[in-house]
User: Fold NAD(P)-dependent oxidoreductase from Amycolatopsis pigmentata.
Amino acid sequence: MHVAIIGMGKMGSAVAHRLLDTGHTVSAWNRTPGRIDQLLQRGVRELPSPDLGDESIEGVLVCLADDRSLLEVAAPQGKCRPSWKRTLVASSATVSPAALAKLNDLYGDRFVAAPIVGAPHAVRSGTATFIIGGGSAARSGFTPVWDQFEGPWDVGNDPHRASVVKLLHNNLLLSELAVVAETVRVGRLAGVDDTTLKAMLEETPMLPAGLRNRLDSLFDPAHPGWFTSPLAAKDLGLVLGLAPDGTRLPVTQAARESYLLAEREGWDQADITAVVEL
Assistant:
C-alpha cells in the first residue's frame, strides 16, 4: 500500500519505518524541515506540502499532536483538503472526540480514527496496536497497514468511540504512573535505596506491564523517553472533558496537576517519568 504520513514526529517516523520494513511505499510531509532526512535514505518520498501530488497514494495517515494541528492540516478553513477527497484518511492522534467528529463529517466513510497504543519502539517492532473507529471503507481499506501491527482493536463505525477508548487507556497509564512516582518518593524519604525500590517495582504483581517498561526511565535522572508532561496534561485534560460539567474526578485532576507542575519546573522536554522529580 502507498501511504502518505503527515507529521513525522517520533510516532509518525516509527510508523514510516515499520511500513518500509514490511514492504509498503511511504510518502511523508512534516511542518518542520529536516525531520525526515534519515527516512529519505530509506526511500521515503518527501511531499512539498500536505497536498498529494501523487495519484498512487491510497491512504493518508495523520500523526499530529493535538486538535489544532490536526484540524489545520486535515480541515483547512473547515473544509476537506481537495487532494484527500480521493484517498482514505486516518488520524492516529490522541485528540478530542469533537475534532474527530469534524473530520468524520468532512470525509465520511473514507475516514477512520486510529489512535495508537504503544511507544515508538513498539510501533517499529510491530507490537503496537491501533484502536480503529470510523467508516467501513477506511477501516477495511487500511487493512494492509493494520496487518503490520498487533490487532487492530476495532470499536466499530464511530470515531468518537475510538477517541474515548484511547483517552481512557491514557488515563490509566498517566494516573497510575503518578502513583508509582509518588510511591518511589515516599520510599526514598523513608530511606529505601533506589536499587531496592526498583527491584520491588520489577517484582511486585501490583505493577501493570505498561508501567513496568518505564522503570528504567523512572530511575534515570535524565528521564529519557518520548511521551512528555505537556502531552500528558493535554490528554488528561481531554479525559476530564469527557465527563459532564460538575463531575468530580479528583484522582485524574490531581494527576493532571502533577504533570502541569513537572512542565512548569523545567521537565517539559523529558519523559512523563520525570514526574518523580516532584
About this structure: The beta strands are 2-6, 25-29, 45-46, 59-62, 88-91, 111-113, 116-117, 129-134, 150-154. Residues 133 and 161 are 7 Å apart (CA to CA). Residues 2-157 form a domain with the Rossmann fold fold (CATH 3.40.50.720).
